[in-house]
Amino acid sequence: MQEKEKVEIVQKAVDFITDFNAQCKKPVITPRNRFFQLPEMARQARLKLQEIRERENRELKFEGGTLVWNYEADRLQILFDSIPDDQKRKELKSYGFKWSPRYQAWQRQLTQNAVYAVKQKSVEPSKPIKHERPIEICSRFPLLRRDMPDQHE
Q: Which of 59, 60, 103, 121 is the one with CA 20 to 30 A from 72?
């Protein structure tokens, strides 16, 4: 079903309720109800979706493959130059990526969380996170003090 047909179905439902309300003494759904805003919301959603799908795909090369923002399919895709090893496939699955035989890529829905997952995957876990001023953080949150290593060592 195309987007235009979906908007038309919503509009027909609103027209049906409007006609039904006209025949009743007391309206089933009052005109102030958000239900009557649905056709306009559906049109706006259709336009926004159409705008997103018309965007040009973005690609980012990395060592061993390419990261693709596929706006038409609404997917963030990882294309590897060669088949990733079992460890890397498990890691991709843990970040919510699934193998797509159609696109021959690891992909997930294009959201902020997908981009964040890719950024997390690219960070080396062996690098410790530096806190600029751990003493100030502990003074604001006293419960953290017992988890922090002794500063006198």
A: 121
Query: H helices of the chain, where?
Result: 3-23, 38-53, 86-94, 112-122, 134-140
Max Cα–Cα distance, the chain, nearest Å: 83
Q: Looking up tokens 């038409």, which residue turns up?
A: 72
SS3 state at 51:
helix
Give the list of residues 6+ apart from residue 40 with CB closer than 8 angstroms, or none: none
What's the rounded Cα separation, in Å, for the pair 101 and 84? 15
Contact in structure between 68 and 57 (CB atoms under 8 Å)? yes
Note the pLDDT tens digit of each residue in 31-83: 889 999 999 998 888 888 788 777 888 898 988 889 999 988 889 999 999 99
Please list, residue by residue across 79-92, b when 16 or more beta carbons sit within 10 angstroms of its beta carbon and e when fewer do.
Answer: bbeeebeeeeeeeb
The pTM of the full predicted model, rounded to 2 decimals, is 0.53
